[in-house]
Design a protein that fits this description.
- The complex is a heterodimer of chains A (235) and B (251).
- Chain A is mostly helical.
- Chain A has one domain (9-87, 104-227): 3 helical TM bundles of succinate and fumarate reductases, CATH 1.20.1300.
- Helices cover 71% and strands 2% of the residues of chain A.
- Chain A contains 9 helices and 2 strands, in the order H-H-H-H-H-H-E-E-H-H-H.
- Chain A has helices at 5-10, 12-37, 44-55, 58-89, 104-107, 109-128, 154-163, 165-192, 198-227, and strands spanning 142-143, 150-151.
- In chain A, a hairpin with a 6-residue loop joins strand 1 and strand 2.
- In chain A, helix 2 crosses helix 4, helix 2 crosses helix 8 (165-192) and helix 2 packs parallel to helix 9.
- Chain A is globular, with a radius of gyration of 21 Å.
- The termini of chain A are far apart.
- By secondary structure, chain B is of the alpha+beta class.
- In chain B, the strands form 2 sheets. A 5-stranded mixed sheet of chain B has the order 2-1-5-3-4. Chain B has a two-stranded antiparallel ribbon with strand order 6-7.
- Chain B has 9 helices and 7 strands.
- In chain B, a hairpin with a 2-residue loop joins strand 3 and strand 4 (73-74).
- In chain B, helix 3 (147-157) packs antiparallel against helix 5.
- The longest helix of chain B is centred in the last third of the chain and has 19 residues, at 231-249.
- Chain B has helices spanning 33-46, 118-127, 147-157, 164-168, 175-187, 189-192, 195-208, 219-223, 231-249; strands at residues 3-9, 18-24, 69-70, 73-74, 96-100, 109-111, 114-115.
- Classes of the chains: A mainly alpha (235), B alpha+beta (251).
- Chains A and B meet through helix 1, helix 2, helix 4 and helix 8 of A and helix 7, helix 8 and helix 9 of B.
């Protein structure tokens, strides 16, 4: 039988491939992002140099940003399309609606996903575009020790940001949602791509829980350390 | 046993349904769930009311005809048990039991608790078979099949097509049913020759018939009276990817 790319990606299973593949890109990104953030603990010089390195080639930077944006849009738009089909497929709920064994993470993928998407928009406006807090633009440039290059002081900006308790609270809650989302997604994507069986399911479910928690702890360690005063404001 | 029943009554597909309360007395704990409904219907007929319509056939758990979502779970939630094999001793005296049809857009209610599961037949017609003439049965071991392969295929073939997987899924997905059929035939040498065509056609028909998408949370397998594993869905996902790519690059 002749098939086209549309045959693959427009079918129910094809849309799930899109969810799994774009999800894979995004979960890889959050791990790298989390590891990058942890450099706050190595001091002002380390994280500012790292941030500058990421920004050094506009072509790579924008290429990467478009790639991530595409993965995010595919993940979100496909999810919306799937949810619409699912609602049409089962318009009436049971009088007595019950789950037998589905985990809380798997049942709340739509809710956690929507909130995480809203958080991403806020996060980009907050720390990348910096429109929610115009005062971040006033932070004095930092001079790198090695190259004597004047760079944006990410370190001070992050600490200023997380010293506001409500900002830290939003970040921590949203990372908990991301953790919950990943505890289902990381294992589910293997099932969707057809590389899971009963024997491996147990291990992959464990991997998903560990992955979710590692991401959660890695990310929230920064705001918590800032709130506890464990990260000194001036390096 | 004395029980309170909350049963879905609906006159026709297009009509609005609603729950109606009934009370039934002196039910034997050793009677099956369907025998309890038979008793209720006898009393309804005696009282000049219309009996509750429900499906049943073999009443020994092998035909896939009985359905019913009992207290929110298809077939009542006892592992590996169809409604006809569910016995009243599983309930307590004085319980209220909610009984409703398998709910899915692809399974329209015909009357009360009876739904039309013809969508499954369409999926089977799309590719749930082997096109060669099989003739009379072959000699045993004429086609060598390793024991583990035969065991897997047998487990997948255990699906009786009752539709509990669709009813258990909040998306009314038919992935477990279709996966069981695809995995059963694609695993055996007789079915392997047509595995790409079969997988593509059955999935296309499944989408067409209006079933929802798989969410990988496994409610289907938990409700399945034949305990079909989620492995069949993974296998179908895998076979579908291979078949699609082969279709594009032209083998």
């Amino acid at each position: 039988m002749k098939t086209t790319c549309c045959h693959i990606f427009c079918s129910s299973i094809g849309k799930k491939y899109l969810m799994a593949l774009s999800g894979m890109v995004l979960l890889g990104f959050v791990l790298v992002h989390m590891l990058g953030n942890l450099q706050v603990f190595l001091g002002q010089e380390a994280i500012n140099a790292y941030a500058d390195k990421l920004q050094s080639s506009p072509a790579v930077l924008w290429g990467f940003r478009f790639f991530l944006l595409a993965a995010t849009l595919i993940h979100v738009l496909t999810a919306i399309s799937l949810v619409r089909e699912n609602r049409a497929a089962r318009p009436d709920a049971n009088g007595d609606e019950k789950f037998v064994q589905a985990t809380i993470g798997s049942r709340t993928m739509g809710l956690t996903g929507s909130l995480i998407f809203a958080f991403i928009v806020f996060h980009v406006l907050h720390y990348t575009v910096r429109v929610t807090h115009p005062e971040y633009q006033q932070i004095a440039h930092y001079t790198l020790g090695k190259s004597h290059k004047e760079v944006h002081d990410v370190y001070t900006m992050v600490i200023m940001g997380f010293q506001e308790k409500w900002i830290s609270a939003i970040y921590i809650v949203c990372m908990a949602l991301l953790c919950l989302h990943l505890t289902h997604g990381v294992s589910s994507l293997f099932q969707t791509l057809g590389i899971r069986n009963t024997t491996w399911k147990t291990n992959l479910d464990r991997l998903a829980i560990v992955y979710g928690w590692v991401i959660f702890i890695g990310f929230v360690s920064v705001p918590i350390a800032v709130l506890m005063g464990a990260v000194p404001p001036t390096g | 046993m004395n029980l309170k029943l909350k049963i879905w009554r609906q006159d026709e597909t297009s009509g609005a349904g609603r729950f109606k309360d009934y009370e039934i007395r002196d039910v034997s704990p050793d009677s099956s769930f369907l025998e309890m409904l038979d008793l209720l219907n006898e009393k309804l007929v005696e009282a000049g009311e219309s009996p509750v319509a429900f499906d049943s056939d073999c009443r020994e758990g092998v035909c896939g005809m009985c359905s019913l979502t009992i207290n929110g779970v298809p077939h009542g939630g006892h592992r590996g048990t169809t409604t006809c094999q569910l016995h009243m001793r599983s309930f307590n005296d004085g319980d209220t039991i909610t009984i409703e049809p398998f709910r899915a857009n692809a399974f329209p209610v015909l009357r009360d608790l009876v739904v039309d599961r013809g969508g499954f037949d369409e999926i089977i017609q799309a590719g749930g078979f082997i096109t060669c003439r099989t003739g009379s049965s072959q000699d045993a071991n004429e086609v060598p099949i390793p024991k583990p392969v035969a065991d897997d295929a047998f487990d997948f073939a255990a699906c009786i097509g009752c539709g509990a997987c669709v009813a258990a899924c909040k998306n009314a997905s038919a992935m477990l049913f279709t996966g069981a059929k695809v995995a059963h035939l694609n695993t055996l040498p007789q079915g392997k020759a047509e595995k790409d065509r079969r997988t593509l056609a059955m999935v296309a028909k499944m989408d067409d018939a209006g079933f929802g998408n798989c969410r990988n949370y496994g409610e289907c397998s938990a409700a399945c009276p034949k305990e079909i594993p989620l492995d069949v869905i993974a296998k179908m996902n895998r076979d579908y990817a291979v078949a699609s790519v082969k279709g594009i690059i032209g083998k």
